[in-house]
Amino acid sequence: MFWLIDALRPHRFVELGTHAGASYCAACQAIELLGLHCSCYAIDTWKGDEHAGYYDEKVYHDLAAYHAPKYAAFSRLVRSTFDAAVDHFEDASIDLLHIDGLHTYDAVRHDFETWRPKLTQNAVVLFHDTNVRERDFAVSRFWGEVSADRPHFEFLHGHGLGVLGVGDNYPKAVASLFAAGEEEHGRGAIRAAFAHLGQVVAHFSDTAHATRRTEATFVLTREEWHRQMEQRGSQITALLAERDQLAARGREREVQSALDRKEWQLQIEGRDAKILQANAQVIEKAEEIQVLKEKLSVAVADRENARSEEKRLHEILGAVYSSTSWRVTAPLRAAKRLLTTLGK
Ligand SMILES: C[S@@+](CC[C@H](N)C(=O)[O-])C[C@H]1O[C@@H](n2cnc3c(N)ncnc32)[C@H](O)[C@@H]1O
C-alpha cells in the first residue's frame, strides 16, 4: 500500500469494505507520511457480512476513535452500503479504489461495475483476496476475467492482492510493476520481495501485540503485586496496632497490679498494726484484770475479815444482852430515850 501510494500519488482513494481498518489506515498513514493531497473515504456498514462474519458496534467505535485524531483532516468513515454511497461520488473522480467487500463472484463483479464510472482514466483498482480458494470466495475468478486484457500485477502472499490498471498511462514505477507482471522472473522477484516485506510487517505487528500483551500482563502482575503489598501492609499495620494495644493493656495491668499490691500491702500493714494494737490492749487488759483480781482477793479477804469481826462482835453483843447488868440498866436507857424525844 505504501509503495503503490508513493508510486501512484492518487488524489482520491476509496475503500469498499474497511472492517477494523487495517488496509484503510495503512493507506491513510502512507498519504499522511508522504504529505499527499488526497481525499480518502472508507465505506462500510460496519455490520459485517457472511465472509467477514457479523460483528458488534465496538469495531466501528474503536476504529473511529483511532482514526479521527490521526486522519480526520483528509479522511472520512462513510457508514453506508456501497450502493447507497456510490452516487455521492462524481464520475471519474477516484484514482485508487480498493474493493474488499463480500467476496462472492457476483458481489465483486457488482462492486467493480457499479464503481467503474467513478474511476479516473488511469485509476488503479485493488482486489483483495484474489488467492482465496475456499467456500464461495470467487474474487480469483472475477480477477482472472477483469485482468485478462488490462495492465495488472497479482501478489499471491497473504490472501492475494490484485493490482489492476483500468487505463494505459501510469507513472513509471507503476508501469514497471505492470510490466514485471508480464514476465515470470520479474513477477517472482517482486512477489518474493513484497512477501518478505509483508512478513516483516506481520512480524513487527505480532511482536507489538505480544509486547502489549506482556505489558498488560506485567501491569496486571504489578498491580496485583501492589495490591497484595498494600494488603500485607494493612495487615502488618493492624498487627502492630494490636501489639501496641496489648502492650498498653499489659502495662495498664502491671500498673494496676502494682497498685493492687501496694493497696494490699497497706491493708496488711494496717491489719498488722491493728493486731499489734489489739495485742497491746489485751496485754494491758490482762494486767488490769490481774490488778483487779488482786484487789478482789484483797476485798474478799477484807470481807472475810469483816465477816469474822462481825461475827465476833455479834457474839460479844449477844453476851452483853444476855448479861445481868444490861437487863438492870434497861429502865435508865428507856428514860434517856424519853428525854431525848421530849427535848426535840
Ligand atoms: C473483508 S472485510 C474488509 C477488511 C478490511 N479491508 C481490512 O483491511 O481488514 C469486508 C467488509 O465489507 C463490509 N461490506 C460487505 N458488503 C458490503 C456492502 N455491500 N456495503 C457496505 N459494506 C459492506 C463488511 O461489513 C465488512 O466489514
Describe, in plain words, how this protein is organized in 3D.
With 344 residues, the protein is an alpha/beta fold. 66% of the residues lie in helices and 13% in strands. The chain has helices at residues 2-8, 22-34, 57-71, 82-86, 105-115, 139-147, 172-182, 184-321, 324-328, 330-343, and strands spanning 12-16, 39-44, 48-49, 53-54, 75-79, 94-99, 119-128, 152-155, 161-165. A seven-stranded mixed beta sheet has the order 5-2-1-6-7-9-8, with helices on both faces. A two-stranded antiparallel sheet has the order 3-4. The termini are far apart.
Question: Characteristics of this structure?
Answer:
10 helices; Rossmann fold; 344 residues; binds S-adenosylmethionine; 66% helix; alpha/beta; two-stranded antiparallel sheet; seven-stranded mixed β-sheet
Helix-residue proportion: 55-70%
State the end-to-end distance: 175 Å
Q: Which residues sit in consecutive blocks of at least 5 with pLDDT less than 50?
A: none
Tally of DSSP helical segments: 10
Mean pLDDT score, rounded? 90
Listed once per kind, the bound small molecules are: S-adenosylmethionine
Give the SSE order as H and E letters. HEHEEEHEHEHEHEEHHHH
Number of DSSP strand runs: 9
Main pleated sheet: 7 strands, mixed
State the strand order across the main sheet.
5-2-1-6-7-9-8
Strand content: 5-15%
The radius of gyration is 67 Å
**Protein structure class:** alpha/beta
Tell me the name of the CATH homologous superfamily of the domain at 2-182.
Vaccinia Virus protein VP39
The CATH topology of the domain at 2-182 comes to Rossmann fold
Q: Which CATH architecture of the domain at 2-182 would you pick?
A: 3-Layer(aba) Sandwich
Morphology: rod-shaped
Q: Given this structure, which CATH class of the domain at 2-182 is correct?
A: Alpha Beta
